[in-house]
Records
---
Amino acid sequence: MFVFDLINIALISVVFVYLLFAFLIIRKGKNAYAYFYLLVILSIIFWTVSMIFYRSSTPENAVLYCKILYLGPTFIASMFLFFSYSFPKDIMLPAWNTTVIFLLNILMVALVLLPDLIIVDVKVVSGGENIIIWGKYYFLYVLYQIGFSSAGLINLYGKHRREKGRVRHQLAYVLVGCFLTYSTAMFTNLLMVWWGDFRLNWLGQILSLFMAASIFFSIIKHGLMGIKFVFSKIYVYLIIAVFVYIYFQYMLYVHILVLSGDATLFQLTFFDLSSTTVFAMILLPFLIYIQKSSDILFFQGQNPRQLIKDLSIKIGGVIDLRQLTTTLNGELKKLLGTENVYIAIKDTYQSKKQMNVILLNENRGRVNFIKERVLSKDGEILSSYIKSSNIITKEELLNEKKVSNDVVKKISKYDIEIIVPLEVRRKAVGFLFLSSKATQEPYTKDDVEIIEIIASQVAISIENAKLYNEIKLFNRHLKVEIKAAVEEFENSNNDLVEANLKLVRAYEKLHKLDRAKSEFLSIASHQLRTPLTSIKGFTSLLMEGTYGKIS
């Protein structure tokens, strides 16, 4: 006979919550640690359902249900240990470690199922919790649980100390939730029952929500954008459902207990219409409030659509490649969790046999310009993707048979997961390369849609930035030319001034020479005229015969 008390109702509610977690992980999770987390959830569901049946068991089947109940935690412990090794970077245990864990798990299952080793008998208590009579090897079960859970927690703590940034925050969420779960559940479900107190032997299933929710919250808050959208919608719908349910119960109460038999049809209709109108008026602002609370909880106070809009505005106002790289790197890290963002543009100075690509990447606040060589055939393949305007995944490019090993190496070198062709008016302007997420989660369908929305804006910004750089180069070249022309003019002017000075000096020299000549001629003529005058006078007297006839 099924026991329908508050504890079983709470356990059933927990099962539904776990089923929701499992559904979302199945839909969105693609990493190894997501599958291990799913196995942990399924094991907890098995454990919780077993507790419901165990609490409803009869003396005839109580031992069987009790053994089934204690099988669940053995799988929870081993799957949690696997999860602690793989989270958050999909690191798998070596084969021999995996084999040892599985063998210990199988051994513990055998000890639980075999009679009188761990569980000897169960005394069914009507109206209370059943009493379990333990076998002499129950301490092995306790050591198994404490050992596996402690190993998982220590492993997570070691990773938390080594990691930095976003991954460290992820591990902090998981570590706190798992520590709270194990530290309390171990006490209520392992030690208290060993001491003979079974009043809280059902509490571990409910406390395990701390662990499951912390892991799930870590994944959705720091990685899977798609799960954020889905979970935020479920959150909103659930609160609305509760609100509508309260209204329905209120209407039912009024109709049955207050208005039943005393109100006319008109009064009932008037009451229903007025109540529904008031409910609709209250519901609209209530929905806005719930949406805001959802944004605060899952998107740090910002609506995802608003984030995309803000990103487009920020990108649209950038006309410098360095600033564009910095803006994209910071915003895509917040929006998608992308670890590195590269802007790839063609190098204008390249040979015909190869295509040089300039990669712009921000590292510690500094934008780096990295030149990479790409063979011409690879360039043609990439150009064909630009014409198709489709987002390229790493797997698609690696499966392209024509792509050379050189491109494959470069993809691995820069950890590129998504390649976004960029074009403006059917003119290729470059690529946007996105590396893997900091959480190592795959890009979801929602992520791809966001990238498609901003790709055209990024392409326009790159084109504007290239034009801006060309204008800057032209202005710089123009300044150089103007400076050279001014210098040439100044040099010519200096030459003219120097030539003029030379002419002035020559003129002054010639003027001096002219004066010297005049003075010389004056002196010479004076000195020559004086004796010539006397000679001329005496000659005139001789010719006149003053001194007699000249023979």
---
Amino acid sequence: MIRLGLYFRTIKYLRWEQIYYQLFFRLKRKIFNRMPELAFAPTPRQLTLVKSIPSAQCYQKNKFVFLNNEMLFGSHIDWNCNAFGKLWTYNLNYFDFLHQEKMEINEAVNLIDDYCNNAAILKDGVEPYPISVRLINWIKFFALNNINNPRYNAVLYSHCSHLASNLEYHLLGNHLLENGYALFFASYYFSESDFYKKAKKILRSELVEQVKKDGAHFELSPMYHQILLARLLDCINLAKSNNSNEELLPLLQSTAMKMIGWLKAVTFQNGDIPMVNDAISGIAPSSREIFSYASRLGVDADSSRLSDSGYRMIRVRRMEMFLDIGNIGPDYIPGHAHSDTFNFILYVDNRPLLVEAGTSTYAVGTQRIIERSTASHNTVIVNEKNQSEVWSSFRVGKRATIIRTEENDHKIRASHDGYASLNVVHERSWGWLEDEFEIVDEIIGGRDVSAVAYIHFPPGLTPKIEGVTVHVGPVVITFKGQQHILLEQYDYATAYNKLNKGDVLKVSFKRGLETRIKLVR
């Protein structure tokens, strides 16, 4: 019964089309879902493109490194290799390596040849998402290197047709948007009106749906925001370079301007993004690369005042604090969300001083549950319960909702109902001066509740506790209202599949806690 309740609390937020298409595609895969036979593809257009953002170095002489796992193949690549899980196989099939710096054209062509030789036995690589990413990478590579190979085009057209018939309406979110980007590229390359109609339908609806008023991608991961923005810029590149009358161009450009403005607002001065929700370094193009690419395309940034994303960036003197006073994400697709309401991250002198545990894996298991839990973030846990009911790898049942916010030039206050089952409301306020932040937590209602505020430090920073005062780097942290201060270690995700030990403060209290973070040198 407990499990049935969890399923209900998860499923009730879904949209009807997600449930319909989940059932539809499962049935279709069992009965009809075969790749179209390779056929003579329409004659492609010779496209021109401005140079885009290079991919990270991930390939060298049949050795592939994705997600910090390395595989060396022999003379032929096992494109179905699942030694490191499905996400690694997806990365292998993306073909991002075509656009890494100093990639030899002949070597890239040999890899495409090998892929085409194995077209009949591909598995994960012919699912809609990897097709979408690979399709764009191949078309960009062909355009930039003036390649027109009938065999490549036949495989590519077969995959485009398969994608067009298997759009990810069961997942929605970033998956469906990637499908739309890919069909937009396919429509230009093959001059295919059916691809264009489907791309236009997706882009017109999803860019409006998925980009919030302040410019944030609605899944609220800065990393996915970077990925989707870079791909949007690719679409602008394609349209501006090949069709000055593209009817979607105003929408593409205005959306990109909003997204650039938001990314500028949340990027730390040293170029880092906040690693909140599912986000980790080394996956997406950097903010600097994106801003440079946008400049080459003549796309400016809209000024962004952070609002409906729920994120705020406070900059005072040598300190930058990123904080979260929003809901965890779109109700019907919270798969990349963490239980992190009222979390905050602090940089001092362009270096991280307070962080969260981060994301090292998407694999179902203990580590994934830990990293999504409330205790892995700089917020408060009550009676050892998560604010939001994160489970499995991408599931959320009952979730915390913001019930009140107040903001002015020097203070932000908000409360959430994530502990409603305990008859408790958590209220947190942040106040700031030139060299100091004050954070006040209040636990309102309930009986016999115990609260713990977590404060995570990155590896290499060792706090020193003296009574109610903690010295760390150039700041002093003091507490008022605490019962106990405990220093423990936790696993910090430095990259995907990479963990280092860091220190975490666990500050227990009953009803209220005041935390002051002050620059002392």
